[in-house]
Every structure is written in structure tokens, then in C-alpha cells.
Amino acid sequence: MTQLQRRKIPDAAIARLPIYLQILNNLAATNVLRFSSDELAALAGVNAAKVRKDLSYLGSYGTRGVGYEVTYLIHQIKRELGLMREWNVVVVGAGNLGCALAKFDGFLSRGFPVVGIVDNDPKKIGRTTSSLTVGDVGDLKNIVRDEKVNIGVITTSSPAAQSAADALIEAGITSILNFAPVVLSTPSSVSVRNVDLGVELQILSYYEQMRIENGSKAQSAPQLNSVGA
Amino acid sequence: MTQLQRRKIPDAAIARLPIYLQILNNLAATNVLRFSSDELAALAGVNAAKVRKDLSYLGSYGTRGVGYEVTYLIHQIKRELGLMREWNVVVVGAGNLGCALAKFDGFLSRGFPVVGIVDNDPKKIGRTTSSLTVGDVGDLKNIVRDEKVNIGVITTSSPAAQSAADALIEAGITSILNFAPVVLSTPSSVSVRNVDLGVELQILSYYEQMRIENGSKAQSAPQLNSVGA
DNA sequence: TCAACTTTGTGAATTAATGCACTAAGCCCT
DNA sequence: AGGGCTTAGTGCATTAATTCACAAAGTTGA
User: Fold this and answer.
1) Are A167 and A186 in contact (CB under 8 A)?
2) Which of A71, A226, B151, B167 is 20 to 30 Å from the Cα of A196, by its Cα?
3) Contacts B172 to A, Cβ<8 Å
């Protein structure tokens, strides 16, 4: 294998590419053909040099004096992020949130079809929600194999989250989106992103309190979150 | 005002304090009295030196050779994050997600009671969801004043999100949690945290693709997210 | 054809975050 | 009372991320 190892893009830049992509999709929808780093920076609320540097990690796709082509850049960002294909998702935990996500069309529309939902509660297994029937968490391995699942979403209660993660990993999943407010213990070969609303509110609380204490001289919260592994 | 400006804690540390807090609450619930930086580091999945540095921003509350007291540290973290009081929340957008959040008890249990929910759709206004009646977005200013709202949560569609933000800001809100996949334009005096599931999935997609391309030698996704302002 | 203008791409400086490694401090046991 | 052990606190080196500022490259118009 003399194949070139993929150029390493900084994590911080990777986290911004989806935001650029979303903005460019909006531009494309309004028939904008080109954009400059200044324009995208204004729309994304970041520094223009940062935009140029981020885009430069994809390759040299701009034209000096002109800017970047919307559709071409969309293509390049999608290629880099691995969005030229679909990634199948299974939801573990068929509670309020899990069911809401299973029927949420934002997943499918962005290329992440939810192909299964499971639970460990016999009362929930067998129920149908938006064309999916809740399966048994014990069948996860079969579901992952048969449905070619790539990503697991955990929407269980906190106490059940770790065993849900264990089951997903046992089934061969290497990417997890975790909504339970716990720190999952996983091998380093597995990617975990945490979404914890309580954490977000508590961060806001800090900056809000600071504004109150220091008058309004205080800084605001940074707009990127961090989800610890 | 010769009052000392509050010690500046790095943003990265602020984003970790809620995670420590959650772990310490679990320890307290199992009657653990003390912990060392090593133990908390293992539970939080971070470096022990980082834990010590983060906690040192709160003050010098550990005892060398012994560790930290669970309940005392909980108190200190809550004080620093502004969690000694409740912060009232209003939800803008009474769709699936908005209603789910309004009845989500994780908000209340962490000190963020949802005191109101509004929409601009006459068909939704007047409906009742878990002890709350959906109000008119036009009444936001009154609701914010009467209910002493501190934080606004945006769960509208993407096109409506900016005007929801404008309405919240007009009503005097300075902290916003945004679920719509758009970059809000807000004055720098307002704190915005974005939660975008599509972005999270796309970040996972990148690292998943990298694992496929480079064998499993590839790195995993960082576990902290970033939500740009 | 060339000068003026625009905008990318990037080296280099700066700032922020991380993690090592050591010192300081307190406990415990003999 | 004192030596050995443990662990907090932190200065410093390293790494990562951001931002500046400018050269390179292309466009446009005269």
C-alpha cells in the first residue's frame, strides 16, 4: 500500500465544514454562482482568513481575484466529509427523543437514513413509528449486518447508555452519537460525539451570570461546543 | 466600581465543568465522599493534569495527598456556572422538537424550568402541552417580562429561526440555544449555542470515512463539539 | 498590452489549550 | 517525631488553532 495517507485536516476545521456546506446549499438554492471568502465568512460568522485556510485544506479550488464556485465547493466539501454516499443510522432507545429522531426527516434529507430503532423494554418492542418497527436491542448485531448500519444513536436513559454503547460496539459500529448525559467508555477506535442539552444550558448559564455580575461588559459564549471523549 | 472583575476561566474549561458536575452528582448519589484528580479524569475521559487545572480555576479546594470533597466541589462548580439559582426558559417553535423539549424533565431537573412556549402558527397557538399553553410569538415580550425568562430556545424551521432570534433579542433575551440548522445573526452581547444534529452526523461521517480509507489506523473524532457564534 | 483592482493562498506571528514534570503539602504508620 | 507515601497545584514546554499581512495570480477596462 503505497497509497498516500489522506491529508490531515485539523479537527477544528472539520467541525466548520458542515456549516459552510449548509450555507453554500442555501446559496445554491438561491442561484448564487460564486462567493468570496469574505462573503462566506460574514454568513458563517467567522474570520475570512479562517475560511480561506479551511477551504485550502480541501485543495486549491478558488480563483484569485474572483472567488469560489458554489456548486464546485459543495462537491468538494461533500467529498471530504464523506457525504458522497449515505450512512445508515440505527437508534437505540425508543423513548420520546428516539422516536422523534426516527421520524425526523432532517436525518434522511442530509443523507443519514434511519434504518432501525431498538429498545430493551418489551412493552416498546413491536410498536411502529413512522414505517419502522421497534426491535429488540438483542437483535442489534443482525440489524447492523442486514441493514448495513454505520452509525448508532443513543437515546436511552442515562443508566442504560453504557450498555447500549457496548451493544453497538459489539455489533461492529464505530461511530456513535450520544444523547444521554453520561461519558461513555469506548475503545479509541470508536468515534463518539455527545449532545447534552443540560451541558449547553449550563454553559449559557455561566456567561449569562457573568454578564449580570460584570454589567454587560462580559464576553459571550463561544459558539462552537466541545463534546469530550 | 472597584469590584474585582471575575477571574477569567478559559472557554474550554467552562465547557468541561458541566461534565465534571454530572459525574460528581453521580458519585454523590452513590455516597462517595472524596475523589482524586486521577479518578475524575478516568471517569471524564480526560487527562488528570487537565482536571486539576480546570478545578484550580475555581479556587484551591483540594487537599494534597487526599483529593477533593465531592459535595464541596459540586457546590463550587455550581456557584461558578451560575447554577445556585434557576434560569427560566422559553421555547420558540411548538413543533415536534419544541413540544418534546417543553415536556422534557431534564430541563427542570437541572434548574432550567420551561415557563413558556410560543409559535407563530395560529393552528398551534392555544394548544396545551404538559401544563403549558402555546402562546403567540408576538407576546414574547410580555412573556419574557412576566415570567422572568432568561434563556430562549429556538426550535422553529430554518427559515423562521432568524426572526425568532430577533424577537427574543427584542424581548431582552441574551442567551439563546438554537436547534435550527442556520447561523444566527446576533449582536455580540448575546450568547448563542448551536445544536445541529446534521453537523454532528457529518463530523462522524468524516472520521468514519477516514477509517475506511486508511484502514483502522485513522484517528477518531474529538469528543467535544464546537458551536460557532 | 498594461495598469489597477480584486481575492486567493499561505508563511509567520500570536494566542489558546494541553500535558509534562516537579514542588509543595498534607496524611499515615512506625 | 519523623520518614515515606500520596496527591494537589502550577511553571513551562509543546501542540493546536487563530489571525495577520502580504505575495501571487487572476480579471477587467482603457
Assistant:
1) no
2) B167
3) none
User: Taking the model in full, what pTM does it have?
Assistant: 0.94
Q: In this structure, what C-alpha cell is assigned to residue A78? A: 461533500
Residue range(s) in chain A whose domain bears CATH number 1.10.10.10: 11-81
Contacts of A207 (CB under 8 A, 6+ apart): A218, A219, A220, A221, B175, B191
Using the CB atoms, write b or e for A197-210: b if 16+ within 10 Å: bbbbbbbbbbbbbb
Strand C proximal residues, B:31-50, Cβ < 7 Å: 46-47, 49-50
Q: In the structure, how far is the CA atom of residue A20 from the C1' atom of nucleotide C19, in angstroms?
A: 32
Compute the count of residue pairs across chains A and B with CB atoms less than 8 Å apart.
Answer: 276
For the A11-81 domain, the top CATH level (class) is: mainly alpha
- B12–A202 C-beta distance less than 8 A: no
Mind listing the pLDDT tens digit for each residue in B46-101? 999 999 999 999 999 999 999 999 999 999 999 999 999 999 999 999 998 899 88
CATH 3.40.50.720, chain A: domain bounds: 88-195
Q: Which nt is closest to the CA of B222, judged by C1'?
A: D16
Which CATH superfamily is B88-195 part of?
NAD(P)-binding Rossmann-like Domain (3.40.50.720)
In DSSP terms, A67 is beta-bridged to: A63
- pLDDT tens sequence across A67-109: 999 999 999 999 999 999 999 999 999 998 899 888 888 899 9
Which residues touch B18 (CB under 8 Å, ≥6 apart)?
A196, A198, A199, A202, A203, B81
- The answer to whether the beta carbons of residues B188 and A62 sit under 8 Å apart is no
